[in-house]
Known about the structure:
Blueprint: E1 3-8, H1 12-21, E2 30-38, E3 42-44, E4 50-52, E5 58-60, E6 64-66, E7 71-76, E8 81-84, E9 89-96, E10 106-119, E11 131-135, E12 139-151, E13 155-168, E14 171-176, E15 180-183, E16 191-193, E17 238-249, E18 255-259, E19 265-270, E20 273-279, E21 282-288, E22 291-296, E23 300-312, E24 315-327, H2 332-337, E25 341-350, E26 354-356, E27 361-363, E28 369-375, E29 380-389, E30 392-403, E31 406-415, E32 425-434, E33 440-450, E34 453-468
Parallel strand pairs: 1-12, 10-11
Antiparallel strand pairs: 1-11, 1-13, 2-5, 2-7, 3-4, 3-6, 6-9, 7-8, 8-10, 9-10, 10-12, 11-12, 12-13, 13-14, 13-15, 15-16, 17-18, 17-19, 17-24, 19-20, 20-21, 21-23, 22-23, 23-24, 25-28, 25-34, 26-27, 26-34, 28-29, 29-30, 30-31, 31-32, 32-33, 33-34
Amino acid sequence: xxxxxxxxHSSALLMAALAAAFPxxxxxxxxxRVDFATGDVKALAPDGRSRPLAKGAxxxxxxxxxTGSGRAxxxxxxxxxxxxxxxxxxxxDDYSFAGKADGSEKGFFSLLRGAMRTITGLVGxxxxxxxxxNTTVATIGIRGTEYSVTYGNSINVTTGxxxxxxxxxxxxxxxxxxxxxxxxxxNTRPVMTDKKAEIPPPPAQEGQLPGFTSGxxxxxxxxxxxxxxxxxxxxxxxxxxxxxxxxxxxGSPDYYLFDGLEGNTTATFSNGGLAEFxxxxxxxxxxxxxxVGMLTDGTIGWGRWIDGTLDDDGTILSMQHVHYVVGMPTxxxxxxxxGGMIGTYSLLGYTYPTAFDGSTWTIGTQPxxxxxxxxxxxxxxxxxLTVPLGANTYSSIWSGWISGSNFYGSGSVSSTGAxxxxxxxxxxxLGFFAGASAARAGLVYExxxxxxxxxxxxxxxxxxxxxxx
Length: 469
């Protein structure tokens, strides 16, 4: 069974904008129009005929778009917009729209390879079964209004707004805003991942691609104006970083919490994530292996490596499932100025948890939750973390102290399942404040004594309030 994506529209305002952007006039023959095209983009008809595509070209049901080394953005008659990355093949299998969403409209597509981002239109709004994007490993159905897909031998689907349903022969998965599904093959059930579907940014000379048009915005010549997505935030390679990291040395059940919290970590970043680091007080060099979901908001970064290596003066040690948070620590002057305040923080981002019992790895697939409160007046910190893993959900209430821009904590852990009995489970946290006025906080955690072994993960928080003590 192919993978199916289904979306549910969650924004009436967006639908109104789509209707304004593309009036509801029926098109019998044409399904879509090319808004932008650059490079050797072409259309392939069902009979094999090929024609080049440029801005303004019309596309019919049954045609396939092949971007080659170029890019394209097309707009369908129901207002839907699709941006296609280089080396992408996208086929319009069966499309019809008579000018109104009365349930008779349909949009069936195939992503044969490559990457796409789409804002869905009116097709599928009345009847979700009338919209599907097929790949060989799963089908995507719309339960939302914006999502991205990358597809090679497997697929990653990231929802921007609303929800997306990803299905194949092994089952279905609902993917909410900000979440990502991963499907390795057609017989493996879709699971959550923290590696987002990322469409490569265009070179500067490609101008407006791959932005989307919105409403009636136009350029000077009356053509739709593209709204470029902002450049993804990055962290610059250099020294002065604080870092907290947790993982396991391969071949051993022993875990470790590493801190480079003195603000003397030299960090190298690549593709938005931490690639390598070393610390003045611990001269070993740690290098990334296979990364999974490395993110940053420009102030603090977080992520997980499936593996990595530690070079300790020529002795090479292997690591597995390494979680980290990294950022420039809050300056001492800012920490001093916060001395009479209490800061509250909400969850910004996280890694999916991992655990190892000495023989088996368990990888989390559900979002965690948590919050943090910093009493800068008393140099105290407290927080809570709720972490689903396996059949259980683990909850920790922890507290600790603040030292400079760093903080440390510990607490008890409870479980929804028949776990953490007897001597119980407990937790430890290690983290730091980052950015001006402690705008961000990041930590790694370890839950000890669970049936899955010790649970590891990372979490970051953004400041939501400052009040006098």
